[in-house]
Design a protein that fits this description.
The complex is a heterodimer of chains A (208) and B (192).
Chain A (H helix, E strand, L loop, with lengths): L6 H7 L7 H17 L3 H11 L3 H20 L4 H11 L3 H13 L1 H11 L5 E12 L10 E11 L14 E7 L1 H18 L2 H10 L1
Antiparallel strand pairs in A: 1-2, 2-3
Helix pairs in contact in A: 1-4, 2-4, 2-6, 3-4, 4-7, 5-6
Chain B lengths: L4 H11 L6 H17 L16 H18 L4 H10 L4 H24 L6 E14 L5 E14 L5 E9 H24 L1
Antiparallel strand pairs in B: 1-2, 2-3
Helix pairs in contact in B: 1-3, 2-3, 2-5, 3-5, 4-5
Classes of the chains: A alpha+beta (208), B alpha+beta (192).
Amino acid sequence: MPLTISEDHKAHLSLLIPQEAPVVGEFCRLAIQFLKQGVNPRVFNSAANKLKVQPNEIEEAIRALVYLLSHCTQATASKDEFNQLLLSLGFSEDAAQVLTETFTQNEPELKMYLKRMGVQVPEYCNLEWRFDILVGSRTLNHIAEPLITMQLSLDSHKSKEDGSLQDQPGKLLLQTDPNNLSHMTAVLEEALHEARTHHSRKIHRHLK
Amino acid sequence: MDLSLEISSALRLLGNSTNFGQAEFKKVLQKATDDLINSGKVPVTSTGSGACDGTIARSHAALATLFIEAVKSNQDGTIVTSTLEDFNWPAERISETVKELDSCRERIRSKLASVGTYPPHIVDVDWKLDYHVRSSAGEEGGGAFYLITLHTEESDGRRGKVTFSCSLAQLSHLVTQLRQASRCIQKYANNS
């Protein structure tokens, strides 16, 4: 896929283009930090003071850099293609070198970032269960009802508002009774069998 | 049976044949029973006997309370009978009341059981097996994934859904946990 950058994007990157390699390296570090932890205004302010520009221009430049890196990861660009693109944008050789290094070294982080920005469904982490007997309640005394209480841990992989990772999986409290438990087990065992059928294996082999 | 002063006095009144004629008594009994079974929202209307001071509403409430207390504490007819005898009820009314109580005991019981809060109760499971081929984020060949939906019922009767995805290995883990729970229950059921 040919790598293209929009005009707006080029404008945002224009702050970075004339800079020296060490400064570009510093920006790369900030961009990777942004990927992992999100916005950090203090850092922007200090960088803005050093370069004598507004903090929001710094923020824009960093976001543009992050977008450039993630866009090229998405397009599965090779190292050379990325380098070519940088040179065509007007970056100096050294700066392009630094950026390409950042690109290749941080590939896993960029892939994780993209995954977070994509289609998200909560993912199963764990299920804890507990067998209880309900003995009484406010409205009904003298009961003996078997119950299963379950804690389902789901990892939603969702970013918090500032783009950083959500660390704790969400935990859901659920309950069921023995009949529904055996029904659930039977249905999910059937689901497991489906993956082992001939049809499913054929598709798996075909798409590998 | 432990009943408050208000309820007791209303019940005494209800049992009194001079205040409440047989027809009126039957009406109140019927209405109380129907309301408990169906959670009727129609208010008790006066039968036009001239007693417009809320006697009928009070007696309706008292009878309903009597029934609920009896079912809640799982007390059989004898205790109810002795309680009503203490309120000087005629034997005929007592036997009618106890008969009504026995006929709707199970339904009142299930109504009482559904009142209260409990965590979402799983009632059904749906599953789907997908193969992730490619995504807009550039991800390729994710492999086979299950999309599981648990249908739940909440305390106020609403239905909810919990959806999550899992890989084949994760689903095996989940099914193992569920089988463990089932075996544990079987063991207790067989032992007792």
